[in-house]
């Protein structure tokens, strides 16, 4: 049977679920069977500017399918943002070699912890570059599977300038990874997951990288690799092809060799949360720990955002930047208050946590800017594991579609609401699909910002 090369795209306003199509290649691999149906340990690798917390829902889904927590790990790259020039030192940014070195150490640690001879690697976006770099340069014997989710394997752009930019498909780094008849390393099973037109980093026009009207030299098919199993997941965006339930199904099936028993997250009776407080020195997001930050957690009313009693947990970070553990109930909506040196006091509102997690990381909100000077309160709606797609998604912020979310190809993962002084203290509803978070508007005059952070 010949499978379609394209997806059935979703209609406007429908939920972002789709049926995958398989792009067959002359070199396409089959995932190797695991002895006794044992799933290899899995190491998750985040993308540019991100952190391991983005894999939280994926880890929960894996646990809900019987994968032991201690057989999984998610790396937190010290400096997750790429350099402008891979060969030139840049403060608080990493080179491809920096990432290769840190990922190699994480693989060794997961092998040591589990005693397994090989591990499976799952990467989002730039994380796939680190995976390919490790495998191609001596690490293939340590890796059984490589799943690359939205990785721009042929570049975000492909031009003859910027030869040392790692996102340049004609640059030194990607030409080195892609040389040869097959673009994968023998002995490792490769799967790529991509969008069908909704990935802002796989577009023919440069509008999404700040160069409208300029051809990028890449296409929607850019994340695919010759020699890999290449799946198209329809109208998912750049991040959703890693973190969406639809992506989870393919990740699990490829590594385990069978369908997951369930897609839904199975709640635990009691939940323990902990994480890292990291900072943004010089305005660059890093995963470097912040010492001396205070984390207070409150249970809040899910319908009003008002606190229900005193703090259920309070902690001050030490040199390692860690906070927790905090014990909460899986039905509690929560407010995290982060007081971090030289940053706004940040009130982060979250949906209930159905399971425990040690990657509930916190970064302070960006500083109040010139655009905020006349605002009585600033509230941000944030979706770390995906973008807001209009009209694809239901996106409502204080009862309206946010004006700063662009329609069409999803490009925005945050929306900002500025309120007059007279509205300080009222509740603000952030709605994405079926997830609904109620935040409170805190006074900007006190250097406070509220964030309604979506989990799904």
Overall description:
The chain has helices at residues 56-64, 96-114, 126-139, 172-178, 240-243, 245-256; strands spanning 21-23, 42-45, 72-74, 119-124, 143-149, 189-194, 205-206, 211-215, 229-232, 271-278, 294-300, 313-316, 322-328, 333-339, 345-350, 362-363, 377-382, 395-397, 414-419, 427-432, 435-440, 448-453. Helix content is 14%, strand content 25%. A seven-stranded mixed sheet has the order 1-9-6-5-4-2-3, sandwiched between helices. It has a seven-stranded mixed sheet with strand order 12-11-14-15-22-17-19, with no helix packed on it. It has a three-stranded mixed sheet with strand order 13-10-16, with no helix packed on it. The chain folds into two domains: 21-256, Alpha/Beta hydrolase fold, catalytic domain (Rossmann fold); 271-453, Immunoglobulin-like. Mean pLDDT is 93; it is low at 1-19 and 23-36. It is of the alpha/beta class. α2 (96-114) crosses α3 (126-139).
Present the secondary structure layout.
Blueprint: E1 21-23, E2 42-45, H1 56-64, E3 72-74, H2 96-114, E4 119-124, H3 126-139, E5 143-149, H4 172-178, E6 189-194, E7 205-206, E8 211-215, E9 229-232, H5 240-243, H6 245-256, E10 271-278, E11 294-300, E12 313-316, E13 322-328, E14 333-339, E15 345-350, E16 362-363, E17 377-382, E18 395-397, E19 414-419, E20 427-432, E21 435-440, E22 448-453
Parallel strand pairs: 2-3, 2-4, 4-5, 5-6, 6-9, 10-16, 15-22, 17-22
Antiparallel strand pairs: 1-9, 7-8, 10-13, 11-12, 11-14, 14-15, 17-19, 18-20, 20-21
